[in-house]
Amino acid sequence: MNDLPLNSPSVGAHVWLESPLVEHGPLDRPKTSVPGQNLGTIVATEKPYLTMDHSLYTVKWGTGHVTKHYYKEMFCIGSFESAHAFLGSVASCKDAVLVQGPRGGFRRFTAHLAVGSVTGIIAYFKDQGSFFRAVIEPVLKRAGVTVNTIIET
Length: 153
Known about the structure:
alpha+beta; SH3 type barrels
């Protein structure tokens, strides 16, 4: 079993683009538009700013377009070939744990997935709370997955 979550952004991991990117890119550089419903692969990482701890990930999309993103801007699906396949696996996850703060704020979520004969974890952290609530949590609820909620002080 790998120590990194299956949905960790890393070179070679897949990302899914649900909605199109329109005129994506830095203010001072040419923009790129990428159609939605698109599978991409992380092909490189960099830390462009010495004052920031956030890596910038270069993604090559199935259309051939190349864009750069910070991790919380991406829907990383690991080795899965589509969002549908990834979310189908999420719907059958085990040992799901949601950690909240004392006022109900999102801190993290972890769960175990089986991918063929391999098991691994998925994890979402504080900066990914909005994504978790909008995309992952509804899948868990529809599937009837039991989520153990822990309140941290």
